[in-house]
TrEMBL record:
Pfam families: HIRAN (PF08797). Residues 11-107 form the HIRAN domain. This is HIRAN domain-containing protein. It comes from Hymenobacter gummosus. Keywords: Hydrolase, Metal-binding. The keyword Hydrolase applies. The lineage of its organism: Bacteria, Pseudomonadati, Bacteroidota, Cytophagia, Cytophagales. One of its GO terms (molecular function) is hydrolase activity, acting on acid anhydrides, in phosphorus-containing anhydrides.
Length: 109
């Protein structure tokens, strides 16, 4: 039986890109439709549902930012439950010195 396509469960900006050191040097390597890794940050003092967004280890595992606060609880709960969730880069652009990254969050069977 063929593998089902992943379900898009969230479309959002990556929050906090302006706080990531050296992101400008890594931006040229970011490609549209690139797979991204989501990592739960359960010990965050700022957000109980914090989820980090990273490039994959083979792409250097660059920490890009976070899922936006207020839109991350469902994804955090699914990650906590052991579900396979990834993300995909759908748009990138510079707005002055801010790197605008838009992603789709994907739930896999």
């Amino acid at each position: 039986m063929p593998q089902a396509a992943p379900l898009v469960i969230l479309e959002c900006l990556v929050a906090g890109t302006s706080h990531r050191d050296n992101l400008a040097q890594h931006e040229p390597q970011l490609q549209l439709n690139q797979s991204l890794e989501l990592r739960r940050e359960s010990d965050s003092t700022f957000d109980d549902w914090a989820v980090q967004v990273h490039t994959l280890p083979e792409a250097g595992a660059v920490w890009l930012g976070y899922l936006p606060e207020g839109r991350n609880e469902t994804v955090a709960r699914l990650l906590d439950a052991g579900k396979r969730i990834t993300a995909r880069l759908t748009h990138k652009s510079w707005e002055d010195d801010w790197l605008y990254l838009n992603i789709e969050v994907l739930l896999h069977e």
